[in-house]
Amino acid sequence: MRKPLEGLRILDLSRLLPGGYGTLILADLGAEVIKIESIEGDPSREIPPFVGSESHHHLTINRNKKSVALNLKTDAGRKVFYDLARNSHCILENFRPGVAKKLGIDFEEIDKINNKIVYCSLSAFGQDSPYKELPAFDLNFTALSGILGLSQLNENGNPSIPGLLLADTSASLWTVISILAGLKDVEQNGKSAYIDLAMHDGLLSLLTIIAGRYFADGNISSGFTGNSAAWNVYRTKDNKHISLAAYDKYFWKRFCELVNREDLITHDFHNHEQSEEIISIVQSIFIQKKRDEWESQFLHANLPFTPVKSIDELEEDSHIQQKEIFQRYRTKTDKEMKYIKTPIYSSINDKKPAPLLGEDARDLLMSIGYIDTEINSLLENKVIKIM
């Protein structure tokens, strides 16, 4: 089956997860994604644990991509990049603001070479923010956005840190959306499109109805952090957990009937001042049985109830098995690597392993007119590297 982005070439200068997951999605949609790495390689190649000699991080987010290792600090390296850009549709970079300009590969420079390019600059706070020079990682964005402040306090009295890299993954999704919109912009207007995308802004946008509630009544709590009996996580007899999300009158009534506690039906679960007592009562119910027993009783009882699973339990999940969400491929070093397929345009058949450093340089350069002697000279002068 032909995929919607086949024929699209993207030069991916991003490093690690924020851009890498975005270009993985674009690759699964059919785009030719070329990772432009330094001669030393993307830092994702060095993150343990390793599958054979290759990093799990690199193997996870860089499948279906190609690699060119290029020294952009040299005139010859910049020329190679310009030649690739001339034959591409999109460039993604996530340097700190100003770095692309210092390297001579910023939007203004590339637009002179290719006046129908989509150029996306993904950075922490954007190109013109007062914070633009600050170093920041996922936890910093989660803290600064107000999202961390919504979490329940842990036993040390500190906000609980989410187990998922929210800023990194949401930035990747916004990158995909922005690039697709940019491609349409170029198609309609016939000229290049520049996208200044800030990770922090993308995370802030996820506040949506939580911010809307604050704007409406000044309440700074989310209402979704376990201070309601109807929206909570409870411990079971075997010291595992279940989640209950009976967050409307119909489902709350349904739950109360199923556990023979009709006396709780009239409880206003939106009134958090009354919640502590009711949470304690519901916990006393769930502690009476093991997690799997509750799952057998409730999973098909028309109740928003699910067990809290750990990652090592997912492979046996019937939904994951039926939809073949966990896939496998053979790495370049002939090791088996598992991955989770993207949920659009099935990536079951996308078995191209994550590339070795610079492995596609020769083929790609020959495809745009370079000859063997020129490529060998680039190798000898350490402008490119091929593993």
* Number of extended strands: 14
How do the strands of the widest beta sheet line up side by side? 8-7-6-1-2-5-14
Q: Low-confidence spans: pLDDT under 50, at least 5 residues?
A: none
Count of folded domains: 2
The major pleated sheet works out as:
7 strands, mixed
Calculate the terminal CA-CA distance, rounded to whole Å.
32 Å
CATH topology group of the largest domain:
Rossmann fold
Quickly list its features:
Rossmann fold; 387 residues; 2 domains; alpha/beta; 15 helices; elongated
Which helices and strands appear, and what pairs or packs with what?
Elements: E1 9-12, H1 16-28, E2 32-37, E3 50-51, E4 54-55, H2 56-61, E5 65-70, H3 75-86, E6 90-93, H4 99-103, H5 107-113, E7 118-123, H6 138-144, H7 166-189, E8 193-198, H8 199-205, H9 208-217, E9 231-235, E10 241-245, H10 249-258, H11 275-286, H12 291-298, E11 305-307, H13 318-322, E12 326-330, E13 336-340, H14 361-367, H15 372-380, E14 384-385
Parallel strand pairs: 1-2, 1-6, 2-5, 6-7, 7-8
Antiparallel strand pairs: 3-4, 5-14, 9-10, 10-11, 12-13
Helix pairs in contact: 1-7, 7-8
What's a concise summary of this model?
This protein has 387 residues and is α/β, with parallel strands linked by helices.
Can you put this structure into words, describing what you see?
Helix 1 crosses helix 7. By secondary structure, the protein is of the alpha/beta class. It has helices at residues 16-28, 56-61, 75-86, 99-103, 107-113, 138-144, 166-189, 199-205, 208-217, 249-258, 275-286, 291-298, 318-322, 361-367, 372-380; strands spanning 9-12, 32-37, 50-51, 54-55, 65-70, 90-93, 118-123, 193-198, 231-235, 241-245, 305-307, 326-330, 336-340, 384-385. The protein has 2 domains: 9-206 and 325-385, Crotonobetainyl-coa:carnitine coa-transferase, domain 1 (Rossmann fold), CATH 3.40.50; 241-307, no CATH class.
